[in-house]
Amino acid sequence: MYVSRKSAGFQARTVLALALGLALVACSGDDKSPDGDGGTGEDITTTVSGKVTFDFVPATYSPTTRSGTLAFNQSTEKPVRKGVVQVRKGTTLIAETTTDEQGNFSLTYTAEADSSVTLYALAKTLTPAIQVEDNTNGNAIWALGTPLTVGTTSKNIHATHGWTGRSFNTSQRSAAPFAILDSMYTASRAFMDVRPVTFPALKVNWSPNNVPQSGSTASGNIGTSHYNSRENEIYVLGKDGVDTDEFDDHVIVHEWGHFFESNLSRSDSIGGSHASGDVLDPRVSFGEGYGNGLSAILLPSSIYADTSWGGGALGAFGFDMESAPTPNDDTSPGVFSELSVMRFLYDLYDAPTVGEAAYDQVNLDLGIIYDVLVGPQKTTPAFTTVGSFIHGLKAQLGVDNAAVDRLAAHYNIGSIRSPFGEGDSALAAMYTNVTVPYNATPVLTGGDIYNKQVQNRYYVFSGTGRTITVKASSNYDVGIEALGNGTQVGAADDFVSGAETFSFASRADMQYVLVLTGYTEQAKSYMATLSITSQ
Question: Is the torsion defined by CA of 356, 359, 364, 370 positive or negative?
Fold first, then answer.
C-alpha cells in the first residue's frame, strides 16, 4: 500500500544499545567511545569466522481453495546475505565486517583476554543500504547478539522464527527483521544485476508491537504495512495474533516497489484502500498493480500471499499473477483495475506458457522494465498510469509493439499511442484538454472514496508564461493539484472546505496536468466549479 498524501508524521530518530545474550536486541550504529567495561589482561588479536542464518517461513495461498497460511513446517534456513557483523565491548564498536552471499563472515578484532565482548549480526546491509529498525524502541537497529569469549575462532549465529505451534515465543522470535531484510535485498539485487543502480538508504520499521490501527507509529499504530512517502520509509506489521507480515515476502517487495517508484522512478498515486473489483483512479491502479506485479517478477513465485489472523486462526488472502481463477476475480478489467495491471506487467516479463500463446508473445528483460520506469515513466507529461508506462515501453529498442498491444487487449487495455492514454477510450476520457482561461462545472460521483475513478477528473493545459490561478469550489470537500512533468507546481486541499485555490508562475513551453478530486462518500452525484485563469 502506498500511504495517502492525507497521512502524515515524521519521527525523530535515535539509536539504543543493549546486550542481552543470544537474543534479538536493539543495537546502535557506530558508537566508538570508551565505556570503561572490560578486563585488565593483555590484548589478544583474534580472527573469528562463522555463518549468519535465519529461519524463513513460506507464506502460502491457494487460488483454488482461496486459503493460505504461514507454513512453519516448511521453513528453511537461509543465509543473511551481505549483512553487517560486529564485535562490541559493551556499547563500544571494536570491529565490523559483512557476510558474503552465503552468509559467511570472518572478522579480526583486538580485545583484552578477560574482557566481555559480544558478537552481533545486524539486520542491516551496506550495499544497498538497508536497515530494519524498531519504531517502538527509539528506532534502534535490530540485531542478534551472542557472548563471545576472546580467543574463540569460530561462532555461528542463527535467528529462529520462534513459532510454538499456536503463537510466537517472544524471546525466540529473532528471524523476523532478517526475513524482511532478505526480501528487500533480493529485490534490490535483481535490478543491480541488470543495471548499474545506486539505491538511496532505506529504513524499514518493524516491531512486534506494530498493529493495523492508526495513531502514533512510535507506539506501533502503523495502520497497515506501507511505504510512507513523506518519511521515505517502510512500515511492516508484526503483532502476534493480529497480523505479522515479516514472512509475507510479496507484501514486503510490494512496499519496496513503492520505495523504488518514489526514489528512482515516479508515482503520482494518491494511495488509499483498494481491493479486487475496485474501479480505481488509474494512478492508483497502476501503482498498486505495479507493486503486485513487481513482487512476482522479483520473487520465485507468481502467487501473492498476505497472511493474518482472523477469529483466532491464521489464514491468508491472495491471488495468482500468472492466471486468473474461475470465476475471474478481475470483475472490472482494464486500466482502472490493479488486477489487470499486475497481470499485464507480469506477462510482459515472464516466459509465455502454452495456454497463453494466443495473446502473450512477450518476454522482456528486467533491464527494459527498469529503463521504462526510470526514463519515460519518470518524465511523462501525463500522470503515471498504465497508459504512460505502455507508451514509454513501446519506445524502447527491440520491443514488439504489436505483441504489447495484443497482450494489453487481453486485459481490456486499448492500443496505447500517447502517454495520455489515447487508444484506450476509458483512460483518454479521464483527460480534458483545455485552453486558459477555462471554466467548467464537472460532476463527481460520491459513494466511493477519493481514490476511485469516479472521484477524479484530469485537465491538460499549456502554460502562458504568466501567473496561473486555479480555483475549485463545491458544497462538498474537494481538492486540486497541478503537475508539470511530474513536479507539483500547486495544490490546495484543506480537508474540510469546498473552496480551494492556488497560483503558480507558469512556463509558456510547459504542459501542465491538473486533477480535481472529490472526497465525499455520500452516495450521490455532486457538482463542482473549476476555473483556470492567467494574469
Answer: negative
Q: Does the residue 16 lie in any domain?
A: no
Residues 419 and 457 in one domain: no
What region, left, alpha or beta, does residue 191 occupy, with left being phi > 0 and alpha being psi -120 to 50 degrees?
alpha
**Are 499 and 358 contained in the same domain?**
no
C-alpha cell of 181?
531484510
Who's near 306: CB < 8 A, 6+ residues apart?
Answer: 59, 61, 245, 248, 250, 251, 316, 317, 318
The C-alpha atoms of residue 141 and residue 510 are separated, in whole angstroms, by 45
Whether residues 88 and 150 share a domain: the answer is: yes
Single pTM value for the model: 0.92
Confirm if 259 and 234 have CB atoms less than 8 A apart.
Answer: yes
Taking only the tens of pLDDT, the chain with its 535 residues reads 554 433 333 222 222 333 333 345 555 444 443 444 455 679 999 999 999 999 999 999 999 999 999 999 999 999 999 999 999 999 999 999 999 999 999 999 999 998 999 999 999 999 999 999 999 999 999 999 999 999 999 999 999 999 999 999 999 999 999 999 999 999 999 999 999 999 999 999 999 999 999 999 999 999 999 999 999 999 999 999 999 999 999 999 999 999 999 999 999 999 999 888 999 999 999 999 999 999 999 999 999 999 999 888 999 999 999 988 888 999 999 999 999 999 999 999 999 988 898 999 999 999 999 999 999 999 999 999 999 999 999 999 999 999 999 999 999 999 999 999 999 999 999 999 999 999 999 999 999 999 999 999 999 999 999 999 999 999 999 999 999 989 999 999 987 777 999 999 999 999 999 999 999 989 999 999 999 999 9
Regarding whether 293 and 255 lie in a shared domain, the answer is: no
Q: List the CATH number of the domain containing 455.
A: 2.60.120.380
Task: Indicate if 85 and 141 belong to the same structural domain.
Answer: yes
Q: Quick one: 409 and 436 in the same domain?
A: no
Structurally, the chain folds into a number of domains equal to 3
Pairwise CA distance, residues 360 & 357, whole Å: 5
One domain for residues 127 and 153: yes
Residue 9 within a domain: no
- Residue 10 in domain: no
Q: Of 412, 429, 446, at which residue does a domain stop?
A: 429
Exposure letters 245-273 (e unless 16+ CB within 10 A, then b)? bbbbbbbbbbbbbbbbbbebbbbbbbbbe
Which structural domain, as residue segments, surrounds residue 328? 268-429
- The grid coordinates of residue 297 equal 517478477
Quote the CA–CA distance of 172 and 363 in Å, as a whole number. Answer: 43
Preceding amide of 58 cis, omega within 30: no
Q: What is 172-202 written as a DSSP string?
A: G--SHHHHHHHHHHHHHHHHHTTS---PPPE
The grid coordinates listed for 265 are 522512478
| H helical segments located in 203-319 | 249-263, 282-298
Domain boundary among 237, 260, 283: 260
